[in-house]
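To whoever picks this up:

The parser on our side crashed when reading a file containing two proteins. I've narrowed it down to the boundary between the first structure block and the second sequence. Both blocks are reproduced below exactly, byte for byte. First block:
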Amino acid sequence: MSSPYLESLFSLENRIAVVIGGTGELCGAMAEGLAGAGAEVVLVGRNEAKASARLERIAAAGGNAWFHAADATSRADLIALRDAVLARSGRIDVLVNGAGVNSPTPLMDIPEDEFDRIISANVKGVLMACQVFGEHLLSAPDGGSIINIGSASARVPLSRVFTYSASKAAVHNLTKNIAREWATKGVRVNLLVPGFFPAEQNRKVLTPDRVETIMGHTPMKRFGQAKELIGATLFLASNAASSFVTGAEIEVDGGFHAMTI
């Protein structure tokens, strides 16, 4: 039996959610969840072909979504994205900052251009999106929710992903700073922190020995599935469910963060 209370708590009917990085595996699943809760979802990425299968699944489930091409490291693209969504849909309620890149380059071999590329995508892109969309959210009657994607490597650096770890540590810090700045202005800013989810950007570093180490540090002894991010996404997206939550780090990691020895 459905519960009207729960439905109202997590409903995103008449809400508009922009998912930057929505053409990827993890944020794509989050986008499906947002659409399933009633939101109109804008999938954002560089490649429409990668978005097509996700858009088809959302439509088949009765959801509403569309694609907008944008480079998350371009302020001009982000402004054009924001303006296109407002022109088409009239409002923006949820922003997911999920674009990101990774590299397993050994420490002494990291070239400057690779470091700059990762920092630009993972940190600068988040900052600019918060600024660009914040211009709207801060003046919107209902405020809004920004969900930045953190990482288990942000607090204690993980081996083999040096620049990625540094960039995600910056995202965690940046998110808390913005959350503090906007706490009284109706805009909540939180972190969704996935543990180990096999995805396009991390398959290169999931060697057999690394998988064994990860499983030894994950109490649930398995990888996460992309759909397991949906519950936390809906919680953070809903003003009704998480109205007093900002600057939080919500781990979805099978207990990885709770493990020491």
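<<boundary where parser fails>>
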Amino acid sequence: MSGASLFIKENLNISDVQVEVLNGTLNIYSLIGFTLAGKTSDWLGRWYTIVLAGTIFFIGALLMGFAPNYAFLMFGRFIAGLHCRDLSSLVSWLPHIFPRGLFHYHIILSYNILTIFVFVNVGILLGYVSNFALAKLPIHLNWRIMLGIGAIPSVFLALGVLAMPESPRWLVMQGRLRDAKRVLNRTSSSEEESQLRLDEIKEAVGIPKDSKDEVVQVSKRSQGEGIWKELLIRPTPAVRHILIVALGTHFFQQLSGTDSVVLYSPRIFEKAGITSYNDKLLTTMAVGFVKTIAILVATFQVDRFGRRILLLSSVGRMVVSFILGVGLAVVDQSHSKVPWAVRLCITIVLFIVVFFSIGLGPITWVYRSEIFPLQLRAQGYSMGVAVNRVTSGVMSMTFISLYKAITIGVAFFLYMGITTLSWVFFYTLYPETQGRFLEDMEVLFGKYHKWREANAMLNKTKQVVHGFGDDNKAQIH
């Protein structure tokens, strides 16, 4: 859509506001899918959910490709938007099927980031390449092909998932212990490890470990009913901390403005002084290239340095990189082309994308996939992704109007302030989850609150002791 929107605007003769709405509403439309997120995952399982996602996006891409006018294009965009929540199931699914052991988390993280970020970013890069390659076609045809060819990878998505097993955790939550055992046998290094993992999942779901039944009746609570109350109305301190961290990460990831940079990079480069379609799309293609390389780097570093270090260093460097506002302000105020400012803007845009892709981009999704307890996982996922998509939609639908109202330079200074605030948030609230298993998260987040309670009790005890005589003090100490 980054390059296609340039030609859609000219061909359909639509306003900048309509372009913003077209770009941003994909995220808003996906909220319909998010509303049913927990039920969809619990009812169909991750396997069928992803097949359904591929089918929906196939239809949406074709509708967009054949759109005769703006209204029909928006309808196709609506259909395509319904699939976005279902693709997020892939993140929640992969950690469930890999074995424990020495390389357990290396495998989980590699597949999470490679599948969700490396290949997604390869797709973004190919989108930019197709923008550049198809730009020379007649304007009534080029953007339709740019959008319509999205139907092709959705077919591979639906077919490729057929080779993958269902989540053993989901199978246990449905009471299908025999099927779960079969999947665990395929994804474990030994029979003993398979049985150990099955016992852990059964305990988390509420099934007795010594149960030998192959099919059992699981309580309604483990199937997702009543979970919203535990998550929102009466959460434990640990669950509340997990929820704040998960939602805050998604919120600040999108509020950093990087989505605007990726989606509107041709316009940013135009503001920097690049005028021809060819040069704008070529420079945008460079954004996709460095973004993909940076994700590859993150894949090999995230388990070496840990999530917290990569996240804080990524966001800290992004704060510095938003001096992009300086270059854009200089170009905006100048009546002639300023070569050094143009070069500065291009360089800084590439740096922003690199720093985001090394930390804040992938860590948001990896972190979210690790921290929610099993019984809260589906609902927690849906809330996190809903916050992510709403924030992204708002940012996408306001970027052009924002920079027209306060100038593009000031807009990026605003993003810099928000990113600084996000660094403080991450530094204050984020524990390190490197090397932890899925079942350990509630304990990890609970330690912080237990420490606070213990510290408060110690202070209270000191106050009481202070009121005694010296002999009693010595005895009490």
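After patching the parser it read the second block fine. The CA atoms of residues 323 and 413 lie 7 Å apart. Confidence is low (pLDDT under 50) at residues 101-107.
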